[in-house]
Task: inverse folding
């Protein structure tokens, strides 16, 4: 079923290989010239799929770009956005090697530990940037969170712990209840 889905996805993606004309904006205000199509393999939730993308080159910047890859969120060697979500969830919950194993066991998808690590950390950095930006906006008053009418100027945080995981050696000379 996964292979069938991957094959359908591949054909669907190939309906629009991303040709956007002989010249496209390179992203820095220059015109990049269409050079041809590039093939690559993208890891998705349906397994690896071949992706054909129009490739343009900007002579002024000296770099190439595939606008379609940017639209799909699969620039460089990145997994598809759907697979990235799965990898980020695993990578945030357990060691990367374990995440790689769980991905194979639960979804039949095979990525190297290094790719699980890179993808998780890249998305972790994106999440951190969003949270920091939101915190800045809230603190500057640019964004008012729904809730109290007045911005909260001081927050108190309390931790109520009732148990600490221990091993017997930790509690040899300790009296009292061990949780
Ligand atoms: Zn350029």
Result:
């Amino acid at each position: 079923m996964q292979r069938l889905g991957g094959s359908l996805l591949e054909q669907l993606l190939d309906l629009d290989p991303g040709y956007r004309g002989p010249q496209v904006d390179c992203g820095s205000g220059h015109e990049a010239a269409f050079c041809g199509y590039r093939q690559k393999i993208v890891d998705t939730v349906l397994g690896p799929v071949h992706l054909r993308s129009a490739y343009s080159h900007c002579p002024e910047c000296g770099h190439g770009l595939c606008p379609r890859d940017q639209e799909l969120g699969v620039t460089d060697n990145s997994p598809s956005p759907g697979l990235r979500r799965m990898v980020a969830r695993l990578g945030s919950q357990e060691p990367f090697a374990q995440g790689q194993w769980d991905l194979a066991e639960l979804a039949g998808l095979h990525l190297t530990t290094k790719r699980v690590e890179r993808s998780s950390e890249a998305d972790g950095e994106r999440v951190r940037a969003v949270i920091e930006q939101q915190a800045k906006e809230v603190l500057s008053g640019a964004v008012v969170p729904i809730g109290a009418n007045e911005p909260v100027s001081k927050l108190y945080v309390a931790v109520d712990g009732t148990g600490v995981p221990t091993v017997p050696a930790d509690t040899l000379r300790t009296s009292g209840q061990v949780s």
